[in-house]
Amino acid sequence: MENYTKLKELVASIEADADKFYNNANSAAGTRVRKGLQDIKTLAQDIRNEITAKKNEGK
Questions:
Q1: Which of 5, 30, 44, 56 has a 20 to 30 Å separation from 38 between CA atoms?
Q2: CB 56 within 8 A of CB 16
């Protein structure tokens, strides 16, 4: 559950930069959004692996 909380925080943290990129055409903010999305992807994969491991413990 700790990683899920981190995931929600990561999504919230890139919201301001996404707004700057899409509404103000700030290309540096776009770079930060792309980095944040890569971090989200990595964390999401970690969460998937945790869930699979926990699910398979019961078998």
A1: 56
A2: no
- 36 neighbors 14 (Cβ within 8 angstroms): yes
Spans in the chain with pLDDT lower than 50 = none
How many domains are contained in the chain?
1
What angle in degrees, to the nearest 10, is found between the helix axes of 27-57 and 2-24? 160
Query: Collapsing DSSP states into helix, strand and coil, what is residue 45?
Result: helix
Domain that holds residue 43: 2-57
Give exposure, 18-49, as e/b (b: 16+ Cβ within 10 Å). Answer: bebbeeeeeeebeebbeebeeebeebeeebee
